[in-house]
Amino acid sequence: MPSTNEGLLLAIGAIFLLIGILGGGFEISAIKIPSAGKYPRIFSVGLGTLFVAIAVVRLFSLGTPSLTTQPTGIPVPPTLPSEQPAAIPSRASIDTAIPPINTLAPPTMPTVLLPIATLTDAPVPPTLTPTNTPVPPTLTSTNTPIPPTLTSTNTPVPPPEPPVGSQEWRQQLEPLNEGTITGVLIAGKFRTQSDLVGMPIDDQRNILIVELAGRTNQPGGYFQSLDNDTLAGVGALLVFFRAAKIRNDQDIKNMSDDGIRNTFIVELDARTHLGNKLQGMSNIELVRLALSIQW
User: Fold this and answer.
1) Between the CA of residue 218 and those of 204, 224, 259, what are the distances in Å?
2) More exposed terminus of the chain, fewer Cβ within 10 Å: N or C?
3) In terms of C-beta density within 10 A (0-12 exposed, 13-18 middle, 19 or more buried), how is residue 276 classed?
4) Please, where are the H alpha helices in 28-165?
């Protein structure tokens, strides 16, 4: 049976539909419905349709008991027959079905707690190297003597050369004023004065020839053809040329004695402005002039 609400909705909806369809002008139970225009009739039809639809939906929803009394998908448990009351189980069957209360549970908790205690109390295995383990002697001991690969500290180190133009520098070149082979060997540091004491002049000459041939681009036979004075002049020119650092030894190695002389004259002319007069001087005279001016 439809409830009162659904019936009321149907009645109201039917009245609105009649107004919309007939246009009014009729009576229902002493209620006179006036005539309605076009737009009120359309509104009445729509409103009546809405009320009727609501009533019909509510009627269908109330008419389906399975949707409201039992959830979908949940099985209904079977009911016992009403004519046979359920038998009350005896105490013996209850004791048989229900396990004794004092039955001990399986020892599951000790097995869970035992590994935890074992892990926390177990000593750490000695995987790391102990701090007191001696380090293998891979490095060279500090007591191991150093092999004598370097020059011994007892080897005398030559003193540094004095600055060009200094008083000490001039004193070292002073033997060149003698114009002799002995003075050239001493000033050029090819031999010391003690080495030359008692040495024959021919031996001194050969020493100077070897030095000149090894430091210029001319052979020893060329210097063998020179007399002692000329040889001493060429040697003095070479010694001063090197001492004044006009050219380095590598450049001198590619020069002849004439090339050294011409370069030396150019350097003297820049300081004395004597010009062609320098060309008429001998090598010893050029060296003596160089020793008398400022460098």
Assistant:
1) 19, 11, 11
2) N
3) exposed
4) 38-62, 65-69, 91-97, 108-121
Handedness of CA 177, 178, 184, 186 (dihedral sign): negative
Q: What is the pLDDT of residues 16-40, one digit of tens each?
A: 777 878 777 667 666 667 777 778 8
Mean pLDDT, the chain, whole residue set: 77
pLDDT at 26: 67
Query: Contact, 245 vs 267, CB < 8 A?
Result: no
Cβ-contact 13, 49 below 8 angstroms: yes
Amino acid at 189: K
Phi-psi region of 14 (alpha: psi -120 to 50; beta: other; left: phi over 0): alpha
- 26-28 and 31-33 beta bridge pairing: antiparallel
pTM of the model: 0.48
CA distance to 14, 17, 47, 237, 238, per residue, from 29 (Å):
14, 17, 22, 158, 155
Which sequence spans correspond to the domains of the chain?
Answer: 4-67, 167-292
Largest separation between any pair of C-alpha atoms in the chain: 174
Percent of the chain clearing pLDDT 70 (strictly above): 63
Mean pLDDT value across residues 54-73: 62
